[in-house]
Amino acid sequence: xxxxxxxxxxxxxxxxxxxxxxxxxxxxxxxxxxxxxxxxxxxxxxxxxxxxxxxxxxxxxxxxxxxxxxxxxxxxxxxxxxxxxxxxxxxxxxxxxxxxxxxxxxxxxxxxxxxxxxxxxxxxxxxxxxxxxxxxxxxxxxxxxxxxxxxxxxxxxxxxxxxxxxxxxxxxxxxxxxxxxxxxxxxxxxxxxxxxxxxxxxxxxxxxxxxxxxxxxxxxxxxxxxxxxxxxxxxxxxxxxxxxxxxxxxxxxxxxxxxxxxxxxxxxxxxxxxxxxxxxxxxxxxxxxxxxxxxxxx
Length: 298
Hints:
The chain is α/β, with parallel strands linked by helices. It has two domains: about 55-130, membrane protein fhac (Ubiquitin-like (UB roll), Roll), CATH 3.10.20; about 135-290, no CATH class. The protein has helices at about 20-50, 75-80, 95-105, 165-170, 200-210, 215, 260-270, 275-280, 285-290, and strands at about 55, 60, 90, 110-120, 125-130, 135-145, 145-155, 180, 220-230, 230-240, 245-250. Residues about 45-50 and about 285-298 have low confidence and may be disordered.
Protein backbone atom coordinates (compact mmCIF):
# COMPACT_ATOMS: atom_id res chain seq x y z
CA UNK A 1 0.00 0.00 0.00
CA UNK A 2 1.45 3.31 -1.05
CA UNK A 3 1.63 6.09 1.50
CA UNK A 4 1.79 9.77 0.60
CA UNK A 5 5.22 11.22 0.74
CA UNK A 6 6.01 13.45 3.67
CA UNK A 7 7.38 15.98 1.23
CA UNK A 8 4.14 16.14 -0.81
CA UNK A 9 2.60 19.64 -1.18
CA UNK A 10 -0.39 20.32 1.17
CA UNK A 11 -3.84 20.29 -0.34
CA UNK A 12 -5.18 23.84 -1.02
CA UNK A 13 -8.89 24.30 -0.55
CA UNK A 14 -9.32 26.63 -3.50
CA UNK A 15 -12.20 27.07 -5.91
CA UNK A 16 -10.64 24.41 -8.13
CA UNK A 17 -10.94 21.89 -5.33
CA UNK A 18 -14.45 20.40 -4.81
CA UNK A 19 -14.17 20.46 -1.04
CA UNK A 20 -12.84 24.00 -1.14
CA UNK A 21 -15.73 25.17 -3.27
CA UNK A 22 -18.21 23.71 -0.81
CA UNK A 23 -16.50 25.39 2.12
CA UNK A 24 -16.43 28.74 0.33
CA UNK A 25 -20.08 28.43 -0.60
CA UNK A 26 -21.00 27.62 3.01
CA UNK A 27 -18.96 30.56 4.27
CA UNK A 28 -20.60 32.88 1.75
CA UNK A 29 -24.06 31.68 2.75
CA UNK A 30 -23.27 32.30 6.41
CA UNK A 31 -22.04 35.80 5.61
CA UNK A 32 -25.12 36.54 3.50
CA UNK A 33 -27.40 35.20 6.22
CA UNK A 34 -25.75 37.27 8.93
CA UNK A 35 -25.72 40.35 6.71
CA UNK A 36 -29.36 39.91 5.74
CA UNK A 37 -30.41 39.41 9.34
CA UNK A 38 -28.49 42.52 10.37
CA UNK A 39 -29.99 44.60 7.54
CA UNK A 40 -33.48 43.35 8.40
CA UNK A 41 -33.03 44.22 12.06
CA UNK A 42 -31.77 47.68 11.13
CA UNK A 43 -34.75 48.18 8.81
CA UNK A 44 -37.23 47.11 11.49
CA UNK A 45 -35.51 49.32 14.04
CA UNK A 46 -35.53 52.24 11.60
CA UNK A 47 -39.24 51.80 10.94
CA UNK A 48 -39.93 51.56 14.66
CA UNK A 49 -37.86 54.68 15.32
CA UNK A 50 -39.71 56.56 12.56
CA UNK A 51 -43.07 55.74 14.13
CA UNK A 52 -41.89 57.24 17.40
CA UNK A 53 -41.55 60.63 15.70
CA UNK A 54 -44.89 60.61 13.88
CA UNK A 55 -47.47 63.10 15.19
CA UNK A 56 -50.99 61.77 14.76
CA UNK A 57 -54.29 63.47 15.61
CA UNK A 58 -54.16 61.96 19.09
CA UNK A 59 -50.72 63.45 19.74
CA UNK A 60 -51.50 67.08 18.96
CA UNK A 61 -53.15 69.32 21.53
CA UNK A 62 -54.51 72.87 21.56
CA UNK A 63 -54.68 75.54 24.23
CA UNK A 64 -57.86 75.16 26.27
CA UNK A 65 -60.74 77.10 24.70
CA UNK A 66 -62.73 79.59 26.83
CA UNK A 67 -66.24 78.85 28.02
CA UNK A 68 -67.95 80.61 25.13
CA UNK A 69 -66.41 78.25 22.56
CA UNK A 70 -68.89 75.53 21.63
CA UNK A 71 -67.90 71.89 21.94
CA UNK A 72 -66.42 70.37 18.83
CA UNK A 73 -64.42 73.40 17.67
CA UNK A 74 -61.07 71.79 18.49
CA UNK A 75 -62.13 68.62 16.72
CA UNK A 76 -62.98 70.68 13.65
CA UNK A 77 -59.50 72.23 13.69
CA UNK A 78 -57.83 68.83 14.11
CA UNK A 79 -59.87 67.40 11.24
CA UNK A 80 -58.54 70.13 8.96
CA UNK A 81 -54.94 69.40 9.96
CA UNK A 82 -55.34 65.68 9.27
CA UNK A 83 -57.77 65.87 6.36
CA UNK A 84 -55.69 63.31 4.43
CA UNK A 85 -54.96 61.18 7.55
CA UNK A 86 -51.25 61.75 6.99
CA UNK A 87 -49.27 62.24 10.22
CA UNK A 88 -46.65 64.93 10.74
CA UNK A 89 -43.00 64.19 11.49
CA UNK A 90 -41.78 66.00 14.59
CA UNK A 91 -38.26 66.03 13.10
CA UNK A 92 -39.43 68.30 10.29
CA UNK A 93 -37.70 71.65 10.81
CA UNK A 94 -40.62 73.53 9.25
CA UNK A 95 -43.27 71.65 11.21
CA UNK A 96 -44.27 74.52 13.51
CA UNK A 97 -44.70 76.94 10.60
CA UNK A 98 -46.65 74.37 8.59
CA UNK A 99 -49.08 73.64 11.42
CA UNK A 100 -49.57 77.33 12.25
CA UNK A 101 -50.26 78.12 8.59
CA UNK A 102 -52.69 75.20 8.28
CA UNK A 103 -54.68 76.22 11.38
CA UNK A 104 -55.00 79.83 10.21
CA UNK A 105 -55.82 78.75 6.65
CA UNK A 106 -58.72 76.69 8.03
CA UNK A 107 -60.46 80.03 8.78
CA UNK A 108 -62.33 78.77 11.81
CA UNK A 109 -64.41 81.77 12.99
CA UNK A 110 -63.30 81.29 16.61
CA UNK A 111 -59.57 81.33 15.78
CA UNK A 112 -58.10 84.82 15.78
CA UNK A 113 -54.47 83.76 15.41
CA UNK A 114 -51.91 81.09 16.27
CA UNK A 115 -49.61 82.48 18.94
CA UNK A 116 -47.05 79.66 18.77
CA UNK A 117 -46.55 75.98 18.01
CA UNK A 118 -44.27 74.00 20.34
CA UNK A 119 -42.73 70.59 19.61
CA UNK A 120 -42.14 68.17 22.46
CA UNK A 121 -39.93 65.22 21.57
CA UNK A 122 -40.51 62.58 20.64
CA UNK A 123 -44.14 62.89 19.52
CA UNK A 124 -46.13 65.76 20.99
CA UNK A 125 -47.13 69.13 19.55
CA UNK A 126 -48.92 71.97 21.35
CA UNK A 127 -50.74 74.66 19.36
CA UNK A 128 -51.34 77.86 21.33
CA UNK A 129 -54.39 79.60 19.85
CA UNK A 130 -55.69 83.11 20.46
CA UNK A 131 -59.46 82.64 20.40
CA UNK A 132 -61.93 85.33 19.46
CA UNK A 133 -64.00 86.76 22.31
CA UNK A 134 -67.57 88.04 21.89
CA UNK A 135 -67.93 91.57 23.26
CA UNK A 136 -71.36 92.64 22.00
CA UNK A 137 -74.55 91.60 20.23
CA UNK A 138 -75.65 93.55 17.16
CA UNK A 139 -79.40 94.10 16.90
CA UNK A 140 -80.65 93.34 13.40
CA UNK A 141 -84.10 93.31 11.87
CA UNK A 142 -84.79 89.78 10.75
CA UNK A 143 -87.41 87.16 11.36
CA UNK A 144 -85.92 84.60 13.75
CA UNK A 145 -88.12 82.13 15.61
CA UNK A 146 -91.21 84.37 15.50
CA UNK A 147 -89.16 87.39 16.62
CA UNK A 148 -88.71 90.51 14.50
CA UNK A 149 -85.25 91.23 15.89
CA UNK A 150 -82.20 89.03 16.00
CA UNK A 151 -78.85 89.28 17.77
CA UNK A 152 -75.53 88.60 16.05
CA UNK A 153 -72.40 88.33 18.24
CA UNK A 154 -69.22 90.17 17.25
CA UNK A 155 -65.73 90.44 18.69
CA UNK A 156 -63.77 93.63 19.41
CA UNK A 157 -62.74 93.89 15.75
CA UNK A 158 -66.28 93.69 14.43
CA UNK A 159 -65.86 90.10 13.25
CA UNK A 160 -69.08 88.07 13.08
CA UNK A 161 -69.11 85.07 15.42
CA UNK A 162 -71.25 81.92 15.40
CA UNK A 163 -74.28 82.47 17.61
CA UNK A 164 -77.01 80.00 16.77
CA UNK A 165 -76.51 76.69 18.51
CA UNK A 166 -73.98 78.12 20.97
CA UNK A 167 -75.41 77.31 24.39
CA UNK A 168 -73.27 79.82 26.28
CA UNK A 169 -74.13 82.77 24.04
CA UNK A 170 -77.81 81.89 23.93
CA UNK A 171 -77.97 81.61 27.72
CA UNK A 172 -76.03 84.85 28.34
CA UNK A 173 -77.11 87.04 25.44
CA UNK A 174 -78.90 89.51 27.75
CA UNK A 175 -75.66 90.26 29.60
CA UNK A 176 -73.82 91.43 26.48
CA UNK A 177 -73.84 95.06 25.33
CA UNK A 178 -76.10 95.62 22.34
CA UNK A 179 -75.16 97.63 19.29
CA UNK A 180 -77.90 99.30 17.29
CA UNK A 181 -77.45 100.92 13.89
CA UNK A 182 -81.12 100.88 13.03
CA UNK A 183 -81.32 97.14 12.54
CA UNK A 184 -79.12 96.89 9.44
CA UNK A 185 -77.98 93.30 8.89
CA UNK A 186 -74.61 92.37 7.37
CA UNK A 187 -74.29 91.67 3.67
CA UNK A 188 -75.70 88.29 2.73
CA UNK A 189 -72.26 87.07 1.69
CA UNK A 190 -70.87 87.66 5.16
CA UNK A 191 -70.50 84.62 7.36
CA UNK A 192 -69.00 83.93 10.81
CA UNK A 193 -65.31 84.75 10.71
CA UNK A 194 -65.80 87.72 8.35
CA UNK A 195 -65.74 91.36 9.38
CA UNK A 196 -69.19 92.96 9.42
CA UNK A 197 -68.14 95.49 6.83
CA UNK A 198 -69.43 98.62 8.60
CA UNK A 199 -66.86 100.70 10.48
CA UNK A 200 -69.54 101.75 12.97
CA UNK A 201 -69.94 98.14 14.11
CA UNK A 202 -66.18 97.87 14.63
CA UNK A 203 -66.03 101.16 16.55
CA UNK A 204 -69.05 100.34 18.72
CA UNK A 205 -67.53 96.92 19.47
CA UNK A 206 -64.34 98.63 20.64
CA UNK A 207 -66.40 100.81 22.98
CA UNK A 208 -68.11 97.72 24.41
CA UNK A 209 -64.76 96.00 24.86
CA UNK A 210 -63.25 99.01 26.65
CA UNK A 211 -66.14 99.21 29.11
CA UNK A 212 -65.83 95.58 30.21
CA UNK A 213 -67.48 94.90 33.58
CA UNK A 214 -68.43 98.58 33.96
CA UNK A 215 -71.19 97.95 31.44
CA UNK A 216 -73.36 95.76 33.66
CA UNK A 217 -72.39 97.59 36.84
CA UNK A 218 -73.90 100.84 35.56
CA UNK A 219 -76.95 99.18 33.95
CA UNK A 220 -76.12 100.11 30.38
CA UNK A 221 -78.14 98.41 27.67
CA UNK A 222 -77.01 99.40 24.19
CA UNK A 223 -74.57 101.48 22.15
CA UNK A 224 -76.18 103.63 19.46
CA UNK A 225 -74.55 105.46 16.57
CA UNK A 226 -75.80 108.98 17.28
CA UNK A 227 -74.34 111.24 14.61
CA UNK A 228 -71.23 112.15 12.67
CA UNK A 229 -69.12 115.28 13.06
CA UNK A 230 -66.12 116.18 10.91
CA UNK A 231 -65.77 112.61 9.73
CA UNK A 232 -65.97 111.18 13.26
CA UNK A 233 -68.81 108.87 14.26
CA UNK A 234 -70.32 109.69 17.64
CA UNK A 235 -71.93 107.16 19.94
CA UNK A 236 -74.33 107.22 22.86
CA UNK A 237 -74.68 104.82 25.77
CA UNK A 238 -78.29 103.95 26.60
CA UNK A 239 -79.21 102.59 30.01
CA UNK A 240 -81.92 100.06 30.82
CA UNK A 241 -83.89 102.95 32.34
CA UNK A 242 -83.87 104.92 29.09
CA UNK A 243 -81.15 107.47 29.91
CA UNK A 244 -78.75 108.54 27.13
CA UNK A 245 -75.10 109.45 27.78
CA UNK A 246 -72.86 110.92 25.09
CA UNK A 247 -69.75 108.75 24.75
CA UNK A 248 -68.32 110.46 21.69
CA UNK A 249 -65.72 108.91 19.39
CA UNK A 250 -64.55 105.31 19.49
CA UNK A 251 -61.33 104.40 21.34
CA UNK A 252 -58.28 105.27 19.31
CA UNK A 253 -59.98 107.79 17.01
CA UNK A 254 -60.86 110.52 19.51
CA UNK A 255 -60.97 114.10 18.29
CA UNK A 256 -58.52 116.71 19.51
CA UNK A 257 -58.96 117.45 23.23
CA UNK A 258 -61.47 114.61 23.60
CA UNK A 259 -61.09 112.33 26.61
CA UNK A 260 -59.61 108.89 26.04
CA UNK A 261 -61.64 105.76 26.72
CA UNK A 262 -59.87 105.28 30.06
CA UNK A 263 -60.71 108.85 31.10
CA UNK A 264 -64.34 108.42 30.09
CA UNK A 265 -64.61 105.23 32.13
CA UNK A 266 -63.03 106.99 35.10
CA UNK A 267 -65.66 109.71 34.82
CA UNK A 268 -68.44 107.14 34.63
CA UNK A 269 -67.26 105.47 37.80
CA UNK A 270 -67.16 108.84 39.56
CA UNK A 271 -70.74 109.71 38.64
CA UNK A 272 -73.67 109.35 40.98
CA UNK A 273 -76.60 107.17 39.97
CA UNK A 274 -78.81 110.25 39.76
CA UNK A 275 -76.44 111.86 37.27
CA UNK A 276 -76.51 108.81 35.03
CA UNK A 277 -80.29 108.52 35.35
CA UNK A 278 -80.70 112.17 34.34
CA UNK A 279 -79.15 111.31 30.98
CA UNK A 280 -77.49 114.68 30.42
CA UNK A 281 -73.87 113.55 30.75
CA UNK A 282 -71.31 114.20 28.01
CA UNK A 283 -68.15 112.19 28.54
CA UNK A 284 -66.07 113.82 25.83
CA UNK A 285 -64.50 116.54 27.98
CA UNK A 286 -64.45 117.31 31.71
CA UNK A 287 -65.72 120.84 30.97
CA UNK A 288 -68.81 119.53 29.21
CA UNK A 289 -69.41 117.09 32.04
CA UNK A 290 -69.23 119.91 34.58
CA UNK A 291 -71.58 122.17 32.66
CA UNK A 292 -74.21 119.61 31.70
CA UNK A 293 -74.25 117.05 34.50
CA UNK A 294 -77.10 117.12 36.96
CA UNK A 295 -76.12 117.87 40.57
CA UNK A 296 -75.31 114.87 42.70
CA UNK A 297 -78.00 113.70 45.08
CA UNK A 298 -77.37 114.56 48.69
